[in-house]
Amino acid sequence: MGLLARVRKEWFIIGIVAAIVSAKLQPAVGLKGGPLRPEFTITYVAVSAIFFNSGLSLKTEELTSALLHVKLHLFVQSFTLVFFPVAMWLCIKLLALTSINTWLLRGLQTVGCMPPPVSSAVILTKAVGGNESFIINLGSSSSVPFSSIFSQLFMTVVVPLILGQVSRRFLRDWLERRKPPFGVISSLVLLMIIYTTFCETFSNPDIELDHLSLLLITFIIFCIQLSFMLLTFVFSTQKQSGFTPADTVAIMFCATHKSLTLGIPMLKIVFEGYEHLSLISVPLLIYHPAQILLGSILVPTIKSWMNSRQKVDKTYSPVLNWSQTGANWQLINWS
């Protein structure tokens, strides 16, 4: 792959680096009261735009279809929103004994509470050939009192999502015909949020980030992802689990990935006014490229395993075809 093709493929990661560097060079542009007026354009307009875009892009029939995969859905959501946060909390209790920056550890805790993404999980699952039809992005989390942010959450998250879904009903034919770049739009808005967040950091001389803490957090994130992918693989391949190899692939990617698109706006809402918001955001900014990198590296291995497993199942497992007559289920043939 040529350099230009690589840049096009990884433009968002490059954009994150560029946004942070730009914030370092010109932090005054993205400060409150500055030319961008982030207290309005980012806090309300940009965040609302991302969730409206999500509501507009998500197919209603896919949301309905996702609900039919009850067992698979419950497994992923339980692992992502219950086991993951608890495991991270225990891990952070141990890491608190080290010299790692406290705000980075708090950011790591928020990563554990984030919902899974649609984009990276679906892309990697499709690359392997797994079951991507049920993957859906739901939920959010908070680490401050809910009453203090309920109004903003409702107006900038829930309402835009609903409006997006309602608008889709009227624009469905046009959307399917033109196929607007929803992902690119959300990514560009997200880069604006990242830029203004780091402008606040670099304008505050009291905030310092030591390189050792950053390296340790990066190493820990890679270890967490590998460990949790292995854990979900072991759980979902047990005979009593009832999951197919394609289901296992979807579980591995969806249950261990975290959404940057929803995560950064949620952090912006929950930690609005925190001077250490950018440090809290750092683990999620690292987690995003890390999950894509690891997923891309593991795709050939996982695809090979899934194909071999499916061949074994096809060779040694009889396939039952059933026909319903009245209230009785009858076996009609083996294939």
Question: How would you sum up this structure, described in words?
Answer:
The chain is mainly alpha-helical and 335 residues long. It is 70% helix and 4% strand. The protein contains 13 helices and two strands. The protein has helices spanning 3-9, 11-25, 38-57, 60-68, 70-95, 102-113, 119-128, 150-178, 182-202, 211-236, 245-254, 260-270, 277-316, and strands at 320-325, 328-334. α2 packs parallel to α9.
Global mean pLDDT:
75
Q: Count the E strands.
A: 2
Strands of the biggest beta sheet: in what spatial order? 1-2
Helix coverage percent: over 70%
Low-confidence stretches: 131-149, 316-335
Number of helices: 13
Largest sheet: 2 strands, antiparallel
Computed structural class: mainly alpha
Shape: globular
* Strand and helix order: HHHHHHHHHHHHHEE
Distance between the termini: 44 Å
Rg result: 22 Å
Q: Proportion of β residues?
A: under 5%
Subcellular location: Cell membrane; Endoplasmic reticulum membrane
Transmembrane segments: 12-29, 41-58, 79-100, 144-163, 184-203, 215-237, 249-271, 277-299
Pfam families: SBF_like
Function: Does not show transport activity towards bile acids or steroid sulfates.
